[in-house]
């Protein structure tokens, strides 16, 4: 599917994490050179832990799965079956060169999508990511971690639909030991990958419109999860 010159790609099965990194990085170079369309790529991975540039080795509690160093900001994150991962290769050179606007728009895109599926979600000041619940029930349902290279974005988001939440126990997720991790299934709202993808696609025009509304140039930076 092509929307606004963006390729919308959904990969079935489990995509090896290393393969996704290779593909994403090559695509970012091509997008920056004007040789390829921007890309929204939705995948699931076999169980892996990924380390951002601020990862603290002490937060890798039990490396029961392969561990990959990444170029994104942030700390340790888990990816695995039942989790929808979205890679965004977006050319900010033509969409405002505003990294903060990009991350804010991405948060709102995911929050609106989850809302359409019956899950009340929100952003929290000072904590990048997507959150649900209040008080003792507060938990993180989605992580955001991006890298910007020559004004082209890499990496993106991970939303927990129905992963094995015990797999998060091998790390301190995103360096936040005081907060739980949840999923759509754990909240009693079953969401299939296909249903999530469709809801996300329906909100894509809103995400792009949010980028186009802000063209203020900011210094290139890395946003963490």
Summarize the structure in words:
Residues 215-225 have low confidence and may be disordered. With 225 residues, the protein is an alpha+beta fold. α2 (99-116) crosses α3 and α2 (99-116) runs antiparallel to α4. The chain contains 4 helices and 12 strands; from the N terminus they run ββαβββββαβββββαα. A hairpin with a 2-residue loop joins β10 and β11 (152-160).
Give the SSE map.
Elements: E1 2-3, E2 6-10, H1 17-32, E3 38-43, E4 48-51, E5 67-69, E6 76-79, E7 83-89, H2 99-116, E8 122-124, E9 127-132, E10 139-149, E11 152-160, E12 180-181, H3 193-202, H4 204-212
Parallel strand pairs: 2-3, 4-5, 10-12
Antiparallel strand pairs: 1-2, 3-7, 4-6, 7-11, 8-9, 9-10, 10-11
Helix pairs in contact: 2-3, 2-4
Kindly summarize this structure in a few lines:
This protein is of the alpha+beta class. It has helices at about 15-30, 100-115, 195-200, 205-210, and strands at about 1-5, 5-10, 40-45, 50, 65-70, 75-80, 85-90, 120-125, 125-130, 140-150, 150-160, 180.
């Amino acid at each position: 599917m092509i929307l606004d010159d963006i390729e919308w790609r959904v990969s079935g099965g489990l995509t090896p994490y290393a393969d996704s990194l290779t593909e994403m990085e090559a695509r970012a170079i091509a997008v920056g050179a004007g040789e390829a369309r921007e890309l929204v790529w939705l995948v699931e991975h076999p169980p892996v832990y990924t380390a951002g540039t601020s990862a603290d080795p002490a937060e890798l509690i039990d490396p029961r799965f392969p561990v990959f160093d990444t170029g994104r900001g942030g700390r340790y994150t888990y990816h695995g079956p039942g989790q929808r991962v979205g890679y965004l290769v977006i050319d900010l050179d033509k969409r405002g060169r505003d990294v903060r606007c990009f991350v804010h728009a991405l948060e709102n895109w995911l929050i609106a999508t989850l809302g359409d599926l019956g899950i009340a979600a929100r952003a929290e000041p000072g904590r990048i990511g997507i959150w649900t619940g209040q008080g003792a029930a507060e938990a993180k349902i989605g992580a955001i971690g991006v890298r910007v290279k020559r004004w082209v974005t890499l990496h993106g988001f991970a939303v927990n639909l129905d992963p094995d939440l015990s797999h998060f126990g091998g790390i301190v997720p995103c360096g936040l030991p005081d907060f739980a991790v949840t999923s759509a299934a754990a909240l009693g709202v079953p969401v299939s990958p296909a249903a999530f993808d469709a809801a996300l696609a329906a909100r894509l025009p809103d995400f792009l419109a949010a980028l186009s509304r802000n063209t203020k140039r900011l210094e290139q930076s890395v946003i963490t999860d």
